[in-house]
Task: inverse folding
């Protein structure tokens, strides 16, 4: 679509002095511009209303629309929310660690859980 050419503004005095032929040309030019703008608005409305539900576009190309009310409610909720983490004035609690680990043991089963057959292991000693 070619760009819409908008004529320069004309003062009221110039219009009152203009002949009827000039006024008719002016009105016809304005009408053409209005028709172009209406066509452009309709084209944009059609593009805006097409989403993955109403066309073959993928869902990732959808523009998520929120109403003004939803946006206002979200802003109000955001203002009242606390930040994550410890809040000012809260006394924290920390778990005590295990301290120093001086040894660990590898524990192997004595028998199979099903059937009760003895489990033969090559390693049955404590690692220090």
Result:
């Amino acid at each position: 679509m070619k760009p819409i050419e908008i004529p320069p503004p004309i003062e009221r005095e110039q219009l009152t002095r203009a002949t009827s032929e000039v006024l008719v040309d002016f009105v016809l030019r304005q009408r053409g511009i209005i028709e172009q703008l209406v066509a452009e608005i309709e084209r944009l409305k059609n593009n805006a209303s097409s989403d993955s539900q109403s066309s073959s576009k993928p869902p990732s190309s959808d523009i998520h629309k929120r109403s003004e009310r939803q946006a206002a409610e979200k802003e109000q909720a955001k203002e009242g929310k606390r930040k994550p983490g410890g809040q000012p004035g809260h006394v924290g609690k920390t778990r005590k660690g295990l301290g120093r680990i001086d040894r660990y043991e590898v524990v192997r089963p004595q028998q199979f859980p099903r059937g009760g057959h003895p489990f033969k292991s090559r390693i049955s000693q404590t690692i220090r």
Q: What stands out?
A: The radius of gyration is 39 Å.
